[in-house]
Amino acid sequence: LARAHAEAGPPIGRVRAIRAMVARRIGVGEHSLVRRLVLFLVALCYLAAFASLRDQWRGLFGRNGVTPVDALLAQVQKNGGLSSLVDRIWTMPTLLWLGDTPSVDAMGEAMCSAGAVLSVTAASLALFTRGGGSSIVFGALWGMYLSLFHVGQVFLSFQWDILLLEVGFVCIWLSPKLRPTSRDPPHPAGLWLLRFICFKLMLMSGAVKIQSECPTWLGLTALDYHFDTQPLPTPLAWWASTHVPREVKRFGVAASLAIEGPLTTLLIAPFRRARTAGAYSQLLLQATIAATGNYTFFNLLTVALACSALDDASLGRLFRGRRRADPNGGETHSDDEPETPKTPVAIDHDDLPANPSARRKLIDLLSPNSRKTVDGAAQDLKEGKLLTREQISTLERAQNTPLPDFDPDSVDPKSTGIKTPRRRLFDSKSPSARRWSRRYAEERESLRDYSYAFGLVGGWLFVAFAAANALMMFKVDGAKVTLKVGVPETNAWLAFIVPCFVRYAWMFILPASCVAHCYDRVRASSSRTVGFVRIAGACFTLVAAAAMLRVVLKPLHQMVPKSTGVSVLGEFGLPAGGVEAALPSFGSRWDDVIDACSTKFRLGSGYGLFRRMTGVGDDGSVMRPEVILEGSDDGGNWTAIEFKHKPSDDVRVAPTWVAPHQPRLDWQMWFAALGAYNHNTWLINLVYRLLKGEPEVWGLVDDGSRRLERYPGGWGAYGADAGRDDGSAWAPTMIRGRRYAYRFVLADSDERTYWKKTFVDEYLPALSLDNQSLMNYVRSQTDWSKDDAGVPVDLGAALEFFRGLNNLFAYFIAGTACAALLLGLDTVAARLALETYGAEKVKRD
Q1: If we measure between CA atoms, which residue out of 117, 40, 666 comes closest to residue 301?
Q2: Are strands 323-324 and 333-334 parallel, antiparallel or unpaired?
Q3: Averaged over 298-327, what is the pLDDT?
């Protein structure tokens, strides 16, 4: 206090001195705002995923869709001989087992709508509550998305779907258990798990680019092809491809390899400044990727992971008012905060310091006015009498100057206007315990300056180490940058760094963070019973966190050859065995159980985005493969079937912005163009459904705005527009597929042209419903001849309500209503607890 008061300038009182001391460290090492931000971003990712699936469910997974879910469930049940519900759920964890065959489609739609509503609820709680959410809400979101993921087949097999399940499970851990208004700080184990997930995601994505020996990555020319050949480019991708100089693109590739390589170690550094630098580098990379490509909610999810490496001090300017300087030379303060407290300050016991001495001093400063007058208090001070807390507070506010130091233990607590907190677990009335407590508080305060200096120096040294590793990857010759490391050097670096960081994670980071969190929680306990319960809970949390860390980091062994790891670590005298030997082990039996559960519930996975650059011609030219489906009524005149967002047959159609929505059929058409049609069985099913005129499937292809004016006979139109009484769509009699090579071009005339296409080959032969091979293939896949369309479906009132919600406005209204309901229940529970146990015990425990 004396040091803070001396640095604050003129005498401003002890209240102001404490405020000046705390203001310099506000948010450092705290993560309440970070938790709210991460949970908010993850909730938005859930919203994008569920809302996007809701619009496509019938066409992709319905009974008349491309990959029917009811057929999949029937096949799994038949092949596995699964009679009981428990066996079916364990074999394929999905809630859709709870419904019968006719209700699967309706249940899927209801689950998508319910997930979107709960996503809005989670986002609202993250914005407007101190705790940031509830583990019950995030647990429900994770369970519903896991149910959809297991039945999504090829259309839900993207890496960001798996990443959302992995991150969503950790968010259950990170969010408050029950009360969204909980004041408990986030457990550090949850934050460190998110940081290591981000580390794994980015490091594996960077390592596979070099290990694949793709010449475009090794030659730093990947961006010459990436903007043209990515699945769904944006308008900015066309501009970057045609206007950005080649040297700038080479620098962009080098920066990407550095950020996804050595700079990923900053995310898990033990120093906050290094983690902040690593997070900002990842945010910069994700911003550039999102600007030039429609990658659904992947960029937003990666931003959430990167933000977990920050602390509240890094986010302070985004959530607090602008700070301005004190005209009298004192400490700065916010525009929305009073310069000095004009009225008695109310403070909760949760906000009091855990140290008894510091807590008493703070109570002294914030006590209300005494009944005695200022003159009476001054007279008592002059006569050398012991003053009460109220008298001290009255004199300081009246004179605007601190009183001489006093012994807080000499103050009579009975004379104050507030109740003294009960003794904590390590608080004692003995003089020796009080002296130890004061000495500990003084030493801890004096060590803060040393720890600040150590963290500052160590953080910048760690940043310098990572930057040096990144710079060693490249060679600069004038204005030309080249990559000077190859696969052997990359494997050797990974074999040394990855096992060391794995051991550092579970041997140092997790135990240290859990012990520090447990110590603060135990010191704030109101009784020894509560303290011991918290110690037992901390031990269980540490073991569970180590098991989850094993699940998260185990996929790292995929990019580290075991033989390389043994040789490299042996040279440095470190334990050999690669990543698997560095992971925490709980015995072979329990390790197998953990690995089996993680695989079944998708708790951990390996990643590797853009391992090899596609669309590279034999002569080095850009050749984006694109399949164009064409329909015909007579086999002579063919017309292209336009999709909503993929490159069109019309080269004058510009790329579109579609993220965070994911048109999953458009995405799969990009993958289909990279191979043959017989390797993509869903494509045959798509053609069959289009030929049959299924309106749900035609709704995935085009939104109906161009059907009647572009397609002969009005293909895809149904109902009154097509004059069909059975509700089916007007479809062509034959469909074929042709493969073209696309690339971006500059406009060469007044009429802007975005693409140039060149015919490559015949991709799919012409198929019709009279084709016996097509019909035999369809019958071999599943029995689609059975018609249950007329069977009534009864989902219950709740599911029918959610099924009726099918737009963002409805999700927003229902989600905010659910959030208000949860807050109301929280308030009622808090009032009942106050009436039952009393305010003091509730505030403490």
Answers
A1: 40
A2: antiparallel
A3: 75
